[in-house]
Amino acid sequence: MKKLSFLIPAHNEEKIIFQALNNLSTLHYQHYEVLVGLDGCTDRTPTIVGEFVSKNPKIFKSYVINTRQGKPAVIDALMTYVTGDIIIIHDADWIFKVNDHSLFLEMISWFDDLSLGGVAESFPIEFDEHLKKRSLVFNSVAWSHYFWFEYQKKKFTKRKDERLYIDKEKMSFPFLTNIYRRSLYKKNTTLADDFERTLDILQRGYDIIVLSNAYYPRMVTSYHAITLHDVYKQKKRTAIARKQLFSKYHLKTNFLAYYFGLFVFMLRNIGKTRSLKGFFGVVLWFVIMGFSIIKPKKNTSTKEGWLLRVAR
Question: In DSSP terms, which residues pair with 207 in a beta bridge?
Answer without folding.
Answer: 116
